[in-house]
Structures are given as C-alpha cells and as structure tokens.
Write a structure and sequence with these properties.
alpha+beta
Length: 167
C-alpha cells in the first residue's frame, strides 16, 4: 500500500476511528483498512448508528484534521501491546495481537498514535492529520459486518467512507 491515495484513505480511516472514540468513549475497534474506492472501519458500539450520525462524525473528523495531529509510529513489544490494549478494553485488538504472535511469531507490533487515539496498525500513514483535506472526504454508509467475516462472531458496525487528494 505505497501509493499516496491508499495512504490518504488509510489515514482517513484512523481519523474516523478517533472521531468515533470522541463520540463513544466506550467504543471497541475492529479493523480499518483502505479499500479500492475508499475506506471503512468496524466498531463495536453501545448503540446502533443512524444515518444522522455520519455528519456529526464528519464534523469531529474535520476538527481532528484541523488539529494537525502527527501520526506517530512505534514498534513495541507484543506483550506490552497486549497490556496496552487490555487496559484500554480493546478486546479485538488484543485478539489480533495474540494471533500475530501465534501465527507469525511476532515479537513486536506496530502501533500508530494521533492525538489521543492509538491503534494497532502496520501503516503507512501520512505525516499528520492536517494533510487530509477537510472537504475531500465523505462518510457514505453504515453496514453490519461480522468480526473477522465469521457469522459465529459478533456483528460490528462498519462505517464506509471515500477520500481523495482534492475536493
């Protein structure tokens, strides 16, 4: 994922997650990749999202973009990462880290911090949230998605969005 548009979309997904955290401090985070035509992020939230939530989240995203938080990359010991995400009650992230350790023999994992938001993520990202154009992204829809695509798992709420380099 080295092309600029992919990096922009992935970074915008992180800004969405940070906005969701502001709106729902108890939110649990799944994954948030870029996709062919934009990005999405999966959330376990205390209530069902409604379409009217999307403009509110976009406003929070614009404030995060304006704050120009740097995307700070760190490689940390996997055990420390498990503890960090356990303390934050981020069970899905703990599961992902444990799988990286088990399946890929990972000793370290990569996290990104932007403002108060910390995420397990390989990256890459833009240098800061301020590089995202506040008028060049849009949240497009809400859908359900089973954690890890398995119907035996919990249904999460997926927010889709689009992002471009210019309006």
């Amino acid at each position: 994922m080295e092309n600029k548009l992919d990096i922009l979309r992935h970074s915008t997904a992180h800004v969405l997650a940070a906005a969701v955290l502001e709106m729902f401090p108890e939110a649990k985070f799944g994954i948030g990749p870029n996709i062919d035509d934009g990005f999405y992020y999966d959330f376990d939230l205390p209530r069902t999202l409604i379409p009217e939530d999307l403009p509110l989240l976009e406003e929070k995203m614009r404030a995060i973009i304006k704050a120009d938080h740097p995307f700070e990359r760190s490689e940390i010991d996997a055990k420390k990462a498990v503890k960090l995400f356990q303390e934050a009650k981020q069970d899905y992230k703990v599961e992902l880290i444990n799988d990286l350790v088990k399946n890929e023999k990972a000793k370290e994992v990569t996290i990104y911090k932007s403002g108060p938001f910390v995420d397990l993520c390989r990256g890459p990202h833009l240098d800061s949230t301020g590089e995202i154009k506040a008028d060049a992204f849009k949240l497009t829809k809400i859908a359900g998605a089973y954690w890890r695509g398995d119907e035996k798992n919990k249904m999460l709420q997926r927010i889709y969005g689009i992002a471009f380099e210019t309006k």
